[in-house]
């Protein structure tokens, strides 16, 4: 029975004036830091062999990648499969693949082009040898083998 009633204090509204700035900052950050995958893998993600002496390739635009491993889709068959760009190919298609990659660059850049082979640890050596033979026949002699850094003894397990 007091003369003064209790006044309820209202919680002030959250100020959302800076929200668009934060959203655009996050959007810009993710746009800059995200890389887009150039090809979708049709083979199982290769478990790369380990190496102790690893060197990073300088110009990624001059690298042509050949993936070797088991197919993701069982209808492709068993055994080692070769992926060139976005399709499963045979060893005979390697020559045309390298020629098409060379055509994308001028003569000076063609001299610095590298063929990178990303092969699964359990890939048959004969498949790699066949690919190297095809590359040798068209004078694509700069070959890089992708590997992960680590203990080399893991390669023999």
Automatic annotation (TrEMBL):
<keyword id="KW-0813">Transport</keyword>
<protein>
    <submittedName>
        <fullName>Biopolymer transporter ExbD</fullName>
    </submittedName>
</protein>
<dbReference type="GO" id="GO:0005886">
    <property type="term" value="C:plasma membrane"/>
</dbReference>
<dbReference type="Pfam" id="PF02472">
    <property type="entry name" value="ExbD"/>
</dbReference>
<dbReference type="GO" id="GO:0015031">
    <property type="term" value="P:protein transport"/>
</dbReference>
<keyword id="KW-0653">Protein transport</keyword>
<feature type="transmembrane region" description="Helical">
    <location>
        <begin position="12"/>
        <end position="32"/>
    </location>
</feature>
<keyword id="KW-1003">Cell membrane</keyword>
<comment type="similarity">
    <text>Belongs to the ExbD/TolR family.</text>
</comment>
<dbReference type="GO" id="GO:0022857">
    <property type="term" value="F:transmembrane transporter activity"/>
</dbReference>
<keyword id="KW-0812">Transmembrane</keyword>
<dbReference type="InterPro" id="IPR003400">
    <property type="entry name" value="ExbD"/>
</dbReference>
<keyword id="KW-1133">Transmembrane helix</keyword>
<keyword id="KW-0472">Membrane</keyword>
């Amino acid at each position: 029975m007091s003369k003064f009633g209790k006044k309820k204090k209202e919680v002030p509204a959250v100020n959302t004036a800076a929200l668009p700035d934060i959203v655009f900052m996050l959007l810009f950050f993710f746009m800059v830091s995200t890389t887009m995958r150039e090809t979708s893998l049709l083979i199982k993600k290769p478990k790369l062999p380990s190496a102790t002496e690893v060197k990073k390739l300088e110009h990624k635009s001059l690298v042509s990648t050949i993936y070797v491993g088991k197919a993701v889709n069982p209808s492709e068959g068993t055994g080692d499969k070769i992926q060139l760009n976005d399709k499963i190919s045979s060893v005979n298609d390697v020559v045309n693949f390298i020629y098409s990659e060379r055509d994308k660059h001028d003569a000076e850049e063609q001299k610095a082009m590298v063929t990178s082979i990303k092969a699964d640890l359990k890939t048959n050596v004969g498949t790699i040898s066949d690919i190297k033979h095809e590359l040798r026949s068209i004078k694509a002699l700069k070959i890089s083998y992708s590997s992960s850094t680590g203990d080399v003894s893991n390669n023999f397990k």
